[in-house]
Amino acid sequence: MQEDINYLEQCGRRECLEFQGLSWEESENTYQLVIGVSKLLQGDLSAKDISVSHRLSPASESNRQPTIIARFCSRRIRASVFNNRHRLRAHNKDHPKARIFINESLT
Fold first, then answer.
1. CA-to-CA distance for 29 and 17, rounded, in angstroms?
2. Is 79 exposed, middle or buried (0-12, 13-18, 19+ CB in 10 A)?
């Protein structure tokens, strides 16, 4: 039974990505922030491609922007975003104080 639960959790993580470095606002739409990053990757992502997205609570002692977790509707879309993350290098080079990173969500 525990092995089945672990397997389901692992499958759920395969559809998620972490977006770090995105500016935080009080009334923000995390879907639009993820779509905006997709445009930087020259991708064609829409809100219907994202199952759910939310921002993690900020660490009190950290001055870094809280991470956004996005779960995609399909692994194909998630893989497309993740495989094109290298295209952020040009953005990060031009905006050294607003660097954006995309990582796999492993937790």
1. 17
2. middle
pLDDT in tens, 70-79: 999 998 999 9
- Enumerate helices (H) and strands (E) in the chain, giving the number of each: 4, 4
Are the beta carbons of 38 and 22 closer than 8 angstroms?
Answer: no
CA distance 32 to 37: 9
- Domain 2-104 matching CATH 3.30.70.330: the answer reads yes
Reported pTM: 0.79
Segments making up each domain of the chain, as ranges? 2-104
